[in-house]
Amino acid sequence: MPKYLILKRYRGGPEPYKPYPPMDQWAPEDVEAHIAFQRQVREMLQERGEYVGAEALTPERVFVRWGGPDAAPVTTDGPMPETSDLIAGWFMVDVESRDRALEIAAYVSSEPGPGGEPMYEWLDVREVMSGLHG
After folding, report:
1. How large is the average pLDDT for residues 36-50?
2. How far, in Å, are 14, 42, 55, 69, 93 from residue 89 at the CA level?
3. Which fold has domain 3-127?
4. DSSP 3-state assignment of 48?
5. Shortest CA distance to 37 belongs to which of 108, 91, 87?
6. 122/9 Cα distance (integer angstroms)
């Protein structure tokens, strides 16, 4: 079965269907409802045998590259891409088809935002390349 990565972004992608403020400006009960929805999605995927993994990411990051055979990794905290380009988190699913991956992503897009209203968030759905490892 193919695996798909369903990427959530802090910003970026197509124009939002419905603009909403950053999560750090939401009411605490709205944040909790959003997180509870994400847990419910994980449980649904686990029950169906489609869940591979899911994580949320903080906006803090560092870029790193190889420094050479006798050097430590080289890191930098800037200049960086706009925060709008950062990945907020993801779901990894193992499904029967691309259509099922799109169905899951559409459901995740309905997650509650401020005031409990669906966010209609654009999600980036990418198939995982097979045959690269083992």
Report:
1. 97
2. 17, 13, 5, 33, 13
3. Alpha-Beta Plaits (3.30.70)
4. helix
5. 108
6. 8
Question: In this model, does residue 18 exceed pLDDT 60?
Answer: yes
**Domain ranges for the chain:** 3-127
CA–CA separation, 107 and 95 (whole Å)? 15
Give the mean pLDDT of the chain: 87
Instruction: Kindly provide the residue ranges of all beta strands, DSSP E only, lying in 58-118, ordered along the sequence.
Output: 63-65, 74-76, 87-94
Please report, as a single letter, which amino acid is at residue 17. Y
Length of the chain: 134
Q: Give bridge partners of residue 75 from the DSSP assignment.
A: 64
> What predicted TM-score, i.e. pTM, was given to this entire model?
0.82
Which run of H or of E encompasses 43? helix 28-48
**Contacts of residue 84, Cβ cutoff 8 Å, sequence gap at least 6:** 9, 10, 11, 12
